[in-house]
Design a protein that fits this description.
Shape of chain B: globular
Strand content of chain B: 25-35%
Number of helices of chain A: 4
Oligomer: heterodimer
Largest sheet of chain B: 4 strands, antiparallel
Order of helices and strands of chain B: HHHEEEEH
Radius of gyration of chain B: 16 Å
Low-confidence stretches of chain A: 127-136
Largest interface: A-B, 39 and 39 residues
Number of strands of chain A: 4
Mean pLDDT of chain A: 89
Number of strands of chain B: 4
Shape of chain A: elongated
Structural class of chain A: alpha+beta
Largest sheet of chain A: 4 strands, antiparallel
Strand order of the largest sheet of chain A: 1-2-3-4
Helix content of chain B: 25-40%
Number of helices of chain B: 4
Distance between the termini of chain B: 56 Å
Strand content of chain A: 25-35%
Strand order of the largest sheet of chain B: 1-2-3-4
């Protein structure tokens, strides 16, 4: 199997192991050597316990794997100042993983947090805003 | 030259042609046949005229490219009900493209709209 295929298979194994499960440090560290990612996933799991992730697109080049993901979780903890609503929340995000020796060593995430904020209680756009126009 | 390299070079030409320029339909259609993307670019151009994009990372596989872009914008039109603030800001976006015969035929985009709204001065309402 080529290295690209191995890296893709590794990420699919990681998602299958995590999706719908409690994401403990011990479980995460089987796959992640990136402490920022471990802490981020544990924080999101504390807000949306046992959240699920669905891979919509996967591609790989060199030691990188990019995943476009749909997230689904029940809002049970405070996030961005919003208290728990017990609502199901879905939103899209993209993660890029860098993999070495079957471990994620670096990653970045970009999510549309507006979808998340509206789902957990931000009322409309924009119900109460303070806009200070630039003088330029 | 293999197809991955060709697609990457095409994409770099496309970003260079668009970045910092007025994005007319005529200019966009030299590179894009995906009507949804054309509409999206024209809308953003009306809100953030001559916005620029700097490629931070490029990944290619088959006929697909995913680019992480650093967008440089000045807010001159209504965006998510926020009136023009004339503020300049930078934000990241990830865009996936499908390329056929040196044209973008399909695409998707994920950017943090909430971050843009915060950069424009939004204070989010936290009351449920």
């Amino acid at each position: 199997m080529s290295q690209l295929k191995k890296n893709k298979a590794f990420i699919i194994e990681y998602y299958n192991a995590m999706s719908g499960q409690e994401k403990t440090r011990e479980n995460l560290e089987k796959y992640c050597a990136d402490p920022r990612l471990v802490n981020y996933v544990m924080f999101i799991d504390s807000v949306f316990p046992k959240y699920e992730v669905y891979v919509e697109e996967l591609m790989a080049e060199d030691d990188k794997v990019i995943v476009r993901v749909r997230f689904r979780g029940m809002h049970k903890g405070e996030i961005m100042g919003f208290p728990p609503t017990n609502k199901w929340v879905e939103y899209p995000f993209v993660v890029r993983y860098q993999i070495q020796n079957n471990k994620i060593i670096h990653s970045w995430v970009i999510a549309d947090n507006l979808v998340l904020a509206e789902a957990v209680g931000m009322k409309g756009i924009p119900p109460k805003i303070k806009i200070e126009a630039s003088k330029t | 030259m293999d197809n991955l390299k060709k697609n990457k070079q095409f994409f770099i030409r496309y970003v260079n042609a668009m970045s910092g320029q007025t994005k007319t339909r005529e200019l966009i259609e030299k590179y894009v046949v995906d009507n949804e993307l054309i509409q999206h670019i024209l809308f953003f151009e009306s809100v953030f005229p001559r916005y620029g994009g700097e490629i931070e990372e490029l990944t290619a596989e088959g006929n697909r490219i995913v680019a992480k872009l650093r967008m440089k914008c000045k807010h001159e039109g209504w965006f998510n009900n926020i009136p023009p603030t004339h503020k300049e800001f930078e934000t990241s976006a990830v865009i996936g493209y499908e390329i056929e015969n040196e044209k973008i035929v399909r695409s998707w985009l994920i950017s943090d709209q909430l971050n843009i709204m915060r950069l424009l001065g939004l204070e989010i309402e936290t009351q449920i």
